[in-house]
Amino acid sequence: MTPRVHTLGNGVRVVCDPLPGWQTVALSVVAGRGARFEDEHRSGWSHLLEHMVFKGAGGRSARDIVEVIEAEGGHINAATGYERTSFQVRALKDGLDLGSAVIADLVQRPAMDDGDLAREKQVVGQEIAEAADTPDDLVFELAQAAAFEGQPLGRPILGTPRSIGRATPEALNAWRAALYGPETLVVSAAGAVDEDALLALAERDFGAGVGSALPEAATAVFRGGVRTRAKRLEQANVVLLLPAVGVRDPDYFALRLLAEMLGGGMASRLFQEAREKRGLAYAIDAYSETYADTGVLGVFAGCDAADAAELAQVTAGEIQALTAPVGEAELARAKAQLKGAMFMGRESALARAEQAAGQVLLFGRTLDPEAVATEVDAVTPGQIAALTARILGARKAAVAVLGPRPALAAADRFQAAFAG
Question: What amino acid positions are annotated as catalytic residues?
Answer without folding.
Answer: 50
